[in-house]
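Need the bound structure for iron/sulfur cluster, inputs here:
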Amino acid sequence: MLTDAYPTTLYPFRFRRLAPDNIVAVSETGDHIFLNDSTLSDLVHRFANFSAPQIAELKSKFFLGPPGGTPGLRRLISSRIAAKHETVLSGPSLHIIVPTLQCAHSCRYCQVSRALDDEGHTMSMDDLDAACDTIFESRAQALTVEFQGGDPLLRFDLIRHAIERIQTRNIGEQRHLRFVVTSTLHQLTEEMCQFFKAHKVYLSTSIDGPEELHNRNRPLPGKDGYERTLKGMSLARRIIGVDAVAALVTVTRNSLEYAETIVDQYVDLKLHDIFLRPLSNYGFAVKNAHALSYSHAEFAAFYAQAFERVIYWNRQGYPLREVGASIALNKVLSTHDGGYVDLQSPSGAGLAAIVYNYDGFIYPSDEARMLAEMGDFGLRLGKIGQPLAQVLKSPVQRDLIQASLGRYVPGCDECAYRTYCGPDPVNTYGRFGTTRAPIYLTDHCQRQMWLFDYLFQKLHGEDEDFLNLAFEWAKPNGG
Ligand code: SF4
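Answer from helper R.:
Posting the output first, comments after.
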């Protein structure tokens, strides 16, 4: 019960109905409470009648407070909101270098037009040097440099050159560096592994599930893509260490019936992270859409089944984290941004992550350079070698920022999940050819809305195992 000595008022919040009598309300700071129709009405009209513990909870979650707030409270709320956006406020931290587009695979959903010849599909040494130097123009103290392709291991010489150049420069800079190479691992050799071990380089690969499914999604003439990836993985683990390789799943129509099998496969392979990524609407995936794509409802059913299997394995004592859920839970449950470039508003494209492409140009994201492979250069930010500050002030980057400010986007402005999420203008552009489209029609919004609904329903459940897991995954370092 409130007294007149400490006047209290209701602060802005947004809410969403999860089920007939189950509502989640989210304050400006991203704190949440669960309500039913009656308690929602009481909160809005008669919160003075709430019990002292209820009032205390609502105050601690910034639903209630002194009218106009005190200067200290206003600072606290601002800093809590800023902490949620740390990744996009501190300069690009993820720098993706695409040394070559060469790749031996012909994946049916590949977003880039793979090329088997070197000519015109590999970064020049001048551009590579310029990209390495530009990385240090970012204000971010922690820098992740990721090599993507094609298959970057086909030009290991360029990877080695870049890593050595960056590390030499870092002697004076003293940034916290992390290197990742994303590859099929088919070209991996002992010599490469020794280099990666010496330079603390992590490897990332794709494993779509069991052998038959993986090889169907990622055809090779020898039909042995899965076997060769596993061979590379075991070489890396032997020389670099057991945690040397992370893997992710691209979900195609073929995957839908394998939800549990895919998760089990990751456990068999002794992997502790699984990232169940939906198919993007770019590149070859569009051309093969009839064979590969699926509805959002189909993906949601697949994801929920796979997710339950992930929980099952954790209950059995095998730690396994679904990365997409982990990113969302970090937003919901932690006061500190986990540093993921996804789910940022303004968008992390360009602000948190930047791509130096083999073609000599800079793009705001992987998806944007994939669109360029299809002949759409509308999301180019500039040329490699241009000052980073200039690139980040380019008209394209400005547009991406403006189009991704949830507060000003119809739909997002009223969305309960706006503190955690925001429009993805690159995704919108890929689908509609413009960075602005009705938000509810975008794949990004449909998937995130569903994922937040799903996770909040689980958080509201009585499952203590899930709650423990959710808080573990929500830690800024991803648990
Ligand atoms: S993109 Fe969709 S889910 Fe995300 S904040 Fe906007 S309306 Fe909400």
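Comments: The longest helix spans residues 296-315. Residues 354 and 370 are 13 Å apart (CA to CA).
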